[in-house]
Design a protein that fits this description.
204 residues, alpha+beta, FAD/NAD(P)-binding domain, D-Amino Acid Oxidase, Chain A, domain 2, 2 domains, 5-stranded antiparallel beta sheet, 3-stranded antiparallel beta sheet, 16% helix, binds flavin-adenine dinucleotide
Length: 204
């Protein structure tokens, strides 16, 4: 369908003429653009500074551990609401994850955070024989967290061809397809299928 992916290309700058962005500059080349969508998750604030735009957003770091294979697994996924931990079993594979660490972007894995996820799991499933987690093998990711908990979806008033899509915090995977539909409508200058005023990227 004519889509071109520039894999492993870091956006380092933008070229502008008046209130239009004319190209997205990557570390290898500039890419001409008639419409630009900023959708780089928890790094959105830093990239926006290059355009003179202040976007309030912080990375909310979460951890997860995978156990595979388990001889005895959970039958259902669950959310352990009081301890903010989620479990996802698939066959003999189990992922447990959680926590919301507000410490910026950092590769450092906090052992006590990993342990607290394991401890919460053991509290709810005491009969499950799950080994202590290997902290060095824990996965971590950054949820893009906005001050009011709502995402940034829509055009930014500062440029004629700039749209934002991100800041979905804990719901980014679930909301991805819905956000994609809205982006398609925005870029094609169609009315959006839901009212997106509350998601205005310039609201702060
Ligand atoms: C432990 C954990 C559990 C979660 N569980 C769920 C869940 O069950 N359901 C759910 O819906 N969501 C869940 N989430 C949240 C979900 O992962 C996020 O909301 C989602 O990943 C946000 O998607 P995104 O595309 O906006 O940002 P990201 O997934 O962060 O993607 C942004 C991308 O932009 C790239 N990038 C950044 N800067 C640049 C640049 N300058 N140039 C080029 N590329 C750049 C990054 O490398 C990254 O690949 C969970 C998150 C965590 C941490």
């Amino acid at each position: 369908m004519g889509v071109h992916f520039y894999l492993n290309a870091e956006v380092t700058d933008f070229e502008k003429t008046g209130n239009k962005i004319t190209s997205v500059v990557t570390h290898t080349q500039p890419i001409p653009a008639d419409e630009v969508i900023i959708a780089n998750g928890s790094w959105m604030g830093e990239l926006s500074k290059l355009l003179g735009i202040r976007i309030l957003l912080q990375p909310g770091k979460g951890y997860s551990m995978v156990y595979d294979p388990l001889s005895r697994n959970l039958q259902y996924p669950s959310i352990l609401v009081d301890d903010r931990v989620a479990t996802a079993p698939i066959g003999r594979w189990l992922r447990i994850g959680g926590t919301m660490e507000m410490s910026g972007h950092s590769d450092y894995i906090l052992p006590k955070r990993v342990q607290s996820i394991y401890n919460a799991f053991k509290k709810y499933y005491p009969a499950m024989d799950l080994p202590q987690p290997d902290t060095s093998k824990a996965w971590f990711g950054y949820r893009p967290v906005t001050p009011d908990g709502l995402p940034y979806i829509g055009r930014h008033s500062q440029y004629a061809n700039l749209t934002y899509a991100g800041g979905h915090a804990m719901m980014g995977v679930s909301c991805a397809t819905g956000t994609g539909i809205l982006l398609n409508e925005i870029i094609q200058h169609q009315p959006t299928s839901i009212n997106i005023d509350a998601f205005n990227p310039g609201r702060f």
